[in-house]
Write a structure and sequence with these properties.
By secondary structure, the protein is α/β, with parallel strands linked by helices. Helices cover 43% and strands 19% of the residues. It has ten helices and ten strands. Bound molecules: 5'-O-[(R)-(carboxyoxy)(hydroxy)phosphoryl]adenosine and zinc ion.
Length: 344
């Protein structure tokens, strides 16, 4: 029997406001370092130009940290995987240029990775904390920048069934949180406060979008209107109703997601559902989808939090899968803010 060494891959993620580097040996993660940029907090959202500058500052230490923690040397690496898109162009360029230079100087192949595919395939990382799903599966990616329902028939056979036509779920959480006076990103604060509130205390108009697409901008406006109206009648409206407002906002968002998910499960007949993206950390979403999976008999996969939010380990797993099939990239491939999952 011949011994085949599993590839050692360095992965780099820089699509938004997290600079991350990971080392994978086959499907196992040896290190996964994430540096979340704090500079955006005071602006209430990610400022693209500041994000690229912060990536430039942290990319070398983050990669160095990942290599040291994995206890390997650069010369042992078999390939470098990086996020080609989608994301903020300036931020993507920092990770992409670094990955290209390093692959050139080490004389090893370069692999470009679609960030949205990576969120989904993070479920295939070998880790004692998670069970790998079976194909076909339905994936719901919910983050600050994305809301996407995808039918996954195989690692490289993905079909987008629906996505948001305007704001992402995380944006709806964060903008509502801002109206309530929480710092950015306020999604986790809404989650915390919602636990002591009445989810049916306030009603907002829910979006009516055909097929499996989503829309959150109308709901966001509806939430703003309820808050403005309340403030007109009572200047302490927010502080007097904070928990109920948070619970009701969260409940409305979950209702939108739940409806589309059930529709997608019915249409596709798929029995495995994977959840990814930072918003997948929401305790209300996790609880409701767990109930739903018992009621409608599908299997729900919730990855560890570090594989939900933006991280390089998820870029690495796609890198390993592409390495195995020899799908390498060219230095001439440019980073791209829009990158369609239907054309991998
Ligand atoms: O995936 P992620 O780290 O970054 C991208 O946007 O790509 O997701 C960040 C988003 C933010 O909108 C944040 O408010 C939201 O995830 N988030 C949550 C929770 N934890 C993070 N939203 C609601 N409840 C949470 N527990
Ligand atoms: Zn992401």
């Amino acid at each position: 029997m011949t011994f085949k060494k599993e590839p050692l891959i360095l992965a780099i993620e820089s699509s938004c406001d997290d600079t991350s580097a990971a080392v994978l040996q086959g499907r196992r993660v040896l290190s996964n370092v994430v540096n979340t940029q704090e500079i955006h907090e005071s602006y209430g959202g990610v400022v693209p130009e500041l994000a690229s500058r912060a990536h430039q500052k942290s990319i070398v230490p983050v990669i160095h940290h990942a290599i040291t923690e994995a206890n390997i040397e650069k010369k042992e690496l078999d390939a470098i995987a990086y996020t080609r898109g989608p994301g903020l162009l300036g931020s993507l360029l920092v990770g992409g240029s670094f990955a290209k230079s390093l692959s050139l100087s080490l004389g090893i192949p370069l692999i470009d990775v679609n960030h949205m595919q990576a969120h989904i395939l993070a479920h295939f990382i070998e880790d004692a904390r998670q069970e790998n799903p079976n194909f076909p599966l339905l994936s719901l990616t919910i983050s600050g920048g994305h809301t996407q329902l995808v039918l996954v028939k195989d690692y490289f056979e993905l079909e987008v069934l629906g996505e948001t036509l305007d704001d992402a779920v995380g944006e709806c959480f964060d903008k509502s949180a801002k109206l309530l006076g929480f710092d950015y990103p306020g999604g986790p604060q809404i989650d915390r406060w919602a636990q002591n509130g009445n989810p049916k205390a306030f009603r907002f108009g829910l979006p009516k979008v055909p097929n499996l697409n989503f829309s959150f901008s109308g709901l966001k406006t509806g939430i703003a209107r309820v808050i403005q109206q309340g403030m007109r009648n009572d200047s302490n409206f927010i502080s007097n109703n904070k928990a109920d407002l948070c619970a009701s906002i969260q409940d409305a968002i979950i209702e939108v997601l739940e409806k589309k998910l059930l529709e997608a499960l019915k249409i596709t007949g798929v029995k495995h559902l994977v959840l990814s993206g930072g918003v997948a950390a929401n305790s209300g979403i996790r609880a409701r989808l767990s109930d739903l999976s018992n009621k409608h008999q599908f299997k729900l996969y919730l990855p560890p939090f570090e594989y939900c939010t933006d991280n390089a380990a998820m870029i690495g797993i796609v890198g390993v899968l592409k390495f195995e099939k020899g799908a390498f990239s060219e230095l001439s491939h440019s980073s791209t803010a829009r990158y369609n999952l239907n054309h991998l």
